[in-house]
Amino acid sequence: MGKKDASSVKLPVDQYRKQIGKQDYKKTKPALRATRLKAEAKRSAPGIRDIILVIVAVLVFLLVVYAFFYLNLSTELDLDVDMD
């Protein structure tokens, strides 16, 4: 008799899991598919931080190249002015 009484009492964790399972069944297939696709896209997509880092690196490189040419050409122009 003790076994019968013990089996009728459910743990709160089991009740919670059962409620969550019922909620999942209430979702439609397109909603579940959309959720899955969104999660996959989030995992596979490059982070915005990575994109910004690449853009900043390219801009710094272009700035260095521009500064190099600017300084070389400006010193050549100064020498031409001094000779006249």
- Tell me the series of helices and strands, N- to C-terminal: HHHH
Tell the overall outline: rod-shaped
Major β-sheet, in short?
A: none
Give the count of helical stretches. 4
Oligomer: single chain
Gyration radius from CA atoms, angstroms: 34 Å
Beta percentage is under 5%
User: What structural class results from the helix and strand content?
Assistant: mainly alpha
Q: Terminal Cα separation, in Å?
A: 116 Å
Number of E strands: 0
List unreliable stretches of 5+ residues: none
Determine the mean pLDDT. 78
Query: Which percent range fits the helix content?
Result: over 70%
Keywords: Endoplasmic reticulum, Membrane, Transmembrane, Transmembrane helix
InterPro entries: TRIQK (IPR024842)
Subcellular location: Endoplasmic reticulum membrane
GO cellular component, one term: endoplasmic reticulum membrane
Give structural notes.
- One of its GO terms (cellular component) is endoplasmic reticulum membrane.
- The protein is mainly alpha-helical.
- 88% of the residues lie in helices and 0% in strands.
- The termini are far apart.
- 0% of the residues are buried.
- The model has no long low-confidence stretch (mean pLDDT 78).
Summarize the structure.
Belongs to the TRIQK family. It is built from 4 helices and no strands. The protein is mostly helical and 84 residues long.
List keywords for this structure.
84 residues; 0% strand; mainly alpha
Tell me the layout of helices and strands.
Blueprint: H1 2-8, H2 12-26, H3 29-44, H4 48-83
Subcellular location: Endoplasmic reticulum membrane
Main location: endoplasmic reticulum
Keywords: Endoplasmic reticulum, Membrane, Transmembrane, Transmembrane helix
